[in-house]
Amino acid sequence: MTPQRGALLSIDLGSTAVKVLIADAESGRPLALTRRSSGTALGSASGAVEQDPNVWWEAIRSAVGEALKAAGPAVEILGIAADGHGPTLVPVRENGSAASAAMLWGDRRAAEDDAQLTALLGRSGWLLAELPKARWFLRERAAAAKETAWLLSTWDALAFRLSGEAVASFWDPARSLSPSQRALLLSEAGGLDERALPPEVFPGTRIGALRPLAASDLGLPIGIPIVSGTNDGMAAVIGAGLMHLARGVDVGGAAGGVGISVERATAERITLEVGGALWSGPAPASFGEARILGGALGGTGLLLDTTISESIAQGSDPGALIDAVAALPLGADGVRVERDGEAVRFIGASDSRGDAHRVRAVMEYGALAVAALLAPARGAGLPLSEMWLSGPATGATSGLYAAQLSVPRGIPQMRADLLGVPVVLPRIPEAAAAGSAALAGLGAGLYASLSEAAELIAVAEERIEPNPGSAAVATSLLEQFRRA
Prior knowledge:
Strand content: 15-25%
CATH topology of the largest domain: Nucleotidyltransferase, domain 5
Radius of gyration: 22 Å
Strand order of the largest sheet: 16-17-15-14-20-21-22
Number of strands: 22
Mean pLDDT: 89
Distance between the termini: 64 Å
Number of helices: 17
CATH superfamily of the largest domain: ATPase, nucleotide binding domain
């Protein structure tokens, strides 16, 4: 009999794609990494932005099947955890299927509910999480609410579908609800019921075991430990090993974001100096007193995917296209991209310049957005020793996944030059999926601490130093971008 190799399975639910990772539990080495579209987000003039969670599940089923095949028959899954975007509300039935469309993080219909709960509890933003959307849903979608067993975040909804156990999983103690606050939310003024307030747990907690229906769907044995997850941003913090101070992670996704680990006093001083440009939040509890300074931005992950996919569909060879993109000088020979809502214009690009210039322009736009976001804080003394890249920030888009291409060095080199610090290409190129694998191993009892799990998972594959000869051009581009 072939000896079994212990492994961890993680599910990373992004706004545009689901990633499934199988990692060796002993070495942290990736055994399989697969990707599927998570469906189309549908918006409307009313402020609605919705997606079908049942499409997510079908994508997960397909991606898990492919990952298991790639990992081979000798693999034994020892734990499963999931992360996802948010604050997104997922109404689920008792069997874990969706009772209604998910209200995505960009959905604005619950703005009034947000204001009323802010006044009621004295907290706002991420500290309210999905509660305003849950309040709106219970009031405005009464028929669907009758079929709903729980109102959950994306990662908790996936954990519920896998295990049948409903929890609210997060680290931030400021989000925890006291008995008096729960009573307020359950009152007439609060407008919620118990379905929006499941028991609170820390991420990395074993909450149950893989139940029969989900096991059958995924082609896995019943009883695998299911571990509570977290939002995709915090999962990326774990997967990039941000227990190391002054290390950053750039996820570069459709909903882009960046985070840097700093000491508490540094975070407090810089947020006071730069105002609301960056948020400051606690690192995972087991990382100690570190804070994560970061920010969200309109990422170019989806735009990059679309640009590359359109070029390939029109006949561009994927390998030749990416090689040509990597060979272009910083500044893309004057090509710029401007965004106006959903409209995108390429400035200075003529038809003769071709697809490579357009793809390069989108990549540089994403890198410049991160550099501009961090510039005021770095001017105030934000320490940044290196930036770990993940997903689209590495240049690995869905078009490249489909073509199974590696990313030429010139693409991450562009990011190093624009940031002016070394960039790191990790062994697992999807930091959030890597972070969820670390949580799965922690909850399954394989690692003594989250830091131990993160050290095993967050391994640098290549470190790329900025080119000193590009500094003047990078400074000029950043200044042009900030003025625009």
